[in-house]
Amino acid sequence: MSPTPGGVPDFMAVSMHDVARVAGVSQRTVSNVVNNYEFVRPETRQRVLDAMARLGYVPNPASWRPSGTAVR
Q1: Is the dihedral of CA 29, 30, 35, 39 positive or negative?
Q2: Are the CB atoms for 16 and 6 separated by under 8 Å?
Q3: Cross-strand bridge partners of residue 9
Q4: Whole-Å CA distances, 62 to 12, 22, 31, 46, 52
Q5: How far apart are the first and last CA of the chain?
Q6: d(CA 23, CA 27)
Q7: From residue 35, how far is each of 10, 28, 67, 71, 72 by CA, in Å?
Q8: Helices 42-55/16-23 angle, 10° precision
Q9: 50 Cβ contact partners less than 8 Å away, ≥ 6 residues apart
Q10: pLDDT value at residue 59
Q11: 9 in helix, strand or coil?
């Protein structure tokens, strides 16, 4: 199996960590972009969006939970 352009093997799901590494930002910044947080610099947002497109990242809605909700 060959890796994707970002270096992730094609049999593995692309994670926020992968996007952060390719974009040169933190995972928190990727999360802020995914959640449309308004205080992300436009050039940083674009770098993250470009990395997401390059890697084929798709957010997993099943992994989202409201803040303050306990994990069991």
Answers
A1: positive
A2: no
A3: 3
A4: 17, 24, 15, 25, 18
A5: 35
A6: 10
A7: 25, 10, 13, 20, 24
A8: 120
A9: 23
A10: 85
A11: strand
Is there a contact between 30 and 19 (Cβ–Cβ < 8 Å)?
Answer: yes
DSSP single-letter state for residue 3: B
Q: Which residues contact 25 (CB under 8 A, 6 or more apart)?
A: 44, 47, 48
In the chain, count H helices and then E strands.
Answer: 3, 0
**Could you list the mean pLDDT of each consecutive 10-residue stretch along the chain, which spans 72 residues?**
53 88 97 94 98 93 66 60
CB atoms within 10 A of CB 47: 19
